[in-house]
Write a structure and sequence with these properties.
- The structure is a single chain.
- The chain is an alpha/beta fold.
- 29% of the residues lie in helices and 20% in strands.
- The structure holds (4S)-2,6-dioxohexahydropyrimidine-4-carboxylic acid (DOR) and zinc ion.
Length: 420
Amino acid sequence: MSTTWTIIGATLPDGSTTDLHISNGVFVEEAPTGAERIDARGLRAQPGLVDLHTHLREPGGEEAETITTGTAAAARGGFTATFAMANTNPATDTPERAEQVRRLAAGASTEVVPIGSVTKGLAGEELSDIAGMNSRAGVTVFSDDGFSVPSAGLVRAAMEQLLPFDGVLAEHCQDQTLAGSSACCHEGPVSEELGHVGWPTIAESVVIARDVQIAQYLGARLHICHVSTAEGVEVLRWAKARGVRVTAEVMPHHLLLTVDELRTGDTTYRVNPPLRSPEDVEAVRQALAEGIIEIVATDHAPHRKQDKDKPFPEAKPGMVAIEHVLSVVIETMINQGRLSWSGLADRMSHRPAQIGRLAHQGRPVAVGEPANLVLVDPAARSLVDREQALSKGRNNPYHGRNLPDPVVATFWRGRQTFSR
Ligand code: DOR
Ligand code: ZN
């Protein structure tokens, strides 16, 4: 496949139009000889997307996803980097296991960056070797995603380990005494109607409140995973006004879908944190527009069919996302006039790379920069068909919906990793 490209007439995030030339993995000034030509008139040229929160399932969950299939799906979604969550089997809780994830990703379609667990085996008891995972495997993001770090004392101890290298704790905010393992959906009229144990919005916001206080006390960096509630947004607003070093992410499903989907009975819609009320959806959209929530990540969580073919409360939580997140952000934010294309580059490329300390990703589309690029057709739409996915996951909440179908091609370090 060609390694030199000339892309004609693409529109940059700032609205200007230009020809782009790629050679040796970077954007160059002059058209390289023998370059493959792409007519990009009418297309947007956005920096490659960076996902700070992906479940690639390897090692241990290869029936649900592998690094090969998950990153192929990511490239189709417009991504050039994915941060691989630590809740694999075994969990990424030692320098050796973090190195193993990097090795397994040798032929992947995106850069893959391991996230380390905060506690050994995500058990919430003993801290993992946080310093070792940083010094020996370059890990900068640590998370027990799937669970909250259970106590304030453990959060403090973890943050003290992170301070010397300015690592970040990425917290899954779900207080287990308010929302334990039997809580399977948003607490409110719909959970009552369906007879499910609900998980209240405050189970999220009290953990955010606890952690921002500890981060402020220590001067440590904190990142809040998958914010889903208006209460959570309010605590973040409070913390940011006081200069706490906290960032936050929102997922596509929390930008588009509400708890009302649960009336279908479809276990695809079981996810943690759960789909919330329309008021919560409005609050997270507004927070993303304002920058109270800095980034969109995916929480791409493929599951085997047999893990979803269960009564609703017993089905595994999680839904796929990585092939559709850009569609959802265009639909809910850009087409509503709530986010610009340069805002999109900030929220989905520049800022996630910065939070994860990935200096060579999320860079502008400009001469001399690494050629990480997604070409986007802003007008294309189609019906989502879960059988067409590159991910192994069929737990697709967008199946059958008419949505933007934006990704035309993705380039990672000048290599074409997806083309339709
Ligand atoms: O719904 C979820 N699924 N939420 C999480 O935090 C973990 C994820 C998974 O690993 O399946
Ligand atoms: Zn997750």
